[in-house]
Amino acid sequence: MIDALAAVETALADAPVVAIVRGLHAGEAVAVVEALYDAGIRVAEVPLNSPDPFATIALLRRHFGTRMVIGAGTVLDPADVDRLAEAGGQICVAPNCDVDVIVRALELGIVPMPGVASPSDAFRAYRAGARWLKYFPAGEVGLVNIAALRPVMPADARFVAVGGVGAANAARFLEGGCDAIGVGSELYRPGRDAATVGGSARELVAAMRAPNPEPRAIANPGATISESPLLDQAGEHVLFVDPVQSTLHRVALADGAMHQVATDLPLNAIGWRGDTLVGLADRALVAVDSSSGATTVIVDVEVGPGCRFNDMTVAADGVVWAGTMHRGLLAGRGALFRISMDGSVERVCEGLGVCNGMEWTRDRTSLYLVDTLQRTLIRFSSVPGGMLGDPVIVSDFMNIPGKPDGMTIGANGNLLVAMWGGARVVELSPNGALLRSLNVSPPHVSSLCADGRGGLIITTSRMRLMQCEADATGSGSVLRFAIGCAVQSGV
């Protein structure tokens, strides 16, 4: 056991990741794990719900010898620990905390990595002899829980975060108190060849060693509410509107130089329709002259009693998808409208709360929409005829501080959402899993967009803050994350 434990600790000190190769066949096992090794990864587990896992583990142990630590995952039965020992396995990973499995692994000289999800699990596993604890499922909430557990756990307890962890948030987990991470389908899934596995593994290892991006304030125009940021046509300035002050702001990315013009109508959102800047007034889609602030009505819309437009996105075909909200924040009064190039208007979805950050995926298969009032992220599928399928809720932002507001989509397909009142931007996978938080000083994060260089522009607001708090937190400023976000710049 001492030799196995030393091997695990050495391997995870070299590269703190356990590669989970679920579904691996013996015929491809050596090539896939060699690709992981070449990328710098030194620990791999073959889950027992893979094809002939014990034969695969034995094959890998014979081939790699001391170069790799090889073991099994999803070990639920002490009898399987005996079979793992016969195959030469060195680690025994489980999604749950079964004392019998832990004890049998220790008896056979195998390092147990039981699954824990609470202080009770963690202490029970530790008392049974486990020192490497798999926190599962992890995600951003798991990171918070691990940070809280560490001070009360014995000093030699180690945490491996698994579930919702990958290249996008690896550095945050490792800097936040985790000793290692476990990564599965991002590295390997059935049918993925060794070359692809190697490329993903190199990206993961590089991400683990990269520092988390830090926000930088590029300007502070003191916006009451900063909405709908987007780059100008040259990509040199970010434009956004403040509907409370009826102002269109322009901030230079290079030096933060600020310019403002008063708009003749309060604008709640703006977007590019080809070369034309368009905006949403309360009840109309308008063309906007960015130099003067003058607006020209394109189409008036009957949005419903007590309602107004709030946010929009412009699709590649020029169709504007515009959402509404009730001025009194009544639930179920918001709606989504489709405004075509010919000026025709269709109400395509009703029963929403406050329609906010919305954007099409690059392949035009899905439209994502934030409902701030209901605290949900909604996905609509695209159907023939340019319309939308039934909505599906993919996240309710559970345990995330603040309310979801503006949103954009990363080049990797992940969703970046501004959390009003939460002092953060969160990154979610397309299925809604929380990947990481980007924390900022201003509490009210309004919206965000690509900076055209692989980074992120974030706008913040001073609304409902005391002046001393707004000044101390830099609220109303425009922030930039220069690295680590890789945001798409158009659809």
Notes on the structure:
There is one protein chain. The chain folds into two domains: 208 residues, TIM Barrel; 267 residues, 6 Propeller (Neuraminidase). The strands form seven sheets. It has a nine-stranded parallel sheet with strand order 5-4-3-2-1-9-8-7-6. The protein has a four-stranded antiparallel sheet with strand order 10-33-32-31, with no helix packed on it. The N and C termini lie far apart (54 Å). The protein contains ten helices and 33 strands. It has 491 residues and is α+β, with helices and mostly antiparallel strands.
Tags for this entry?
491 residues, alpha+beta, TIM Barrel, Neuraminidase, 9-stranded parallel sheet, 10 helices, 22% helix, elongated
* Termini gap: 54 Å
Q: Can you tell me the CATH class of the largest domain? A: Mainly Beta
Radius of gyration: 26 Å
> Which word captures the global form?
elongated
Count, helices: 10
> Strands across the major sheet, in which order?
5-4-3-2-1-9-8-7-6
| Number of separate domains | 2
CATH homologous superfamily grouping of the largest domain:
TolB, C-terminal domain
Question: What fold name goes in the CATH topology slot of the largest domain?
Answer: Neuraminidase
CATH architecture of the largest domain: 6 Propeller
What is the helix content? 10-25%
Structural class: alpha+beta
Number of strands: 33
The low-confidence runs, each spanning 5 or more residues with pLDDT under 50, are 483-491
Approximate strand percentage: 35-45%
Give the averaged pLDDT, no decimals.
92
The biggest sheet amounts to:
9 strands, parallel
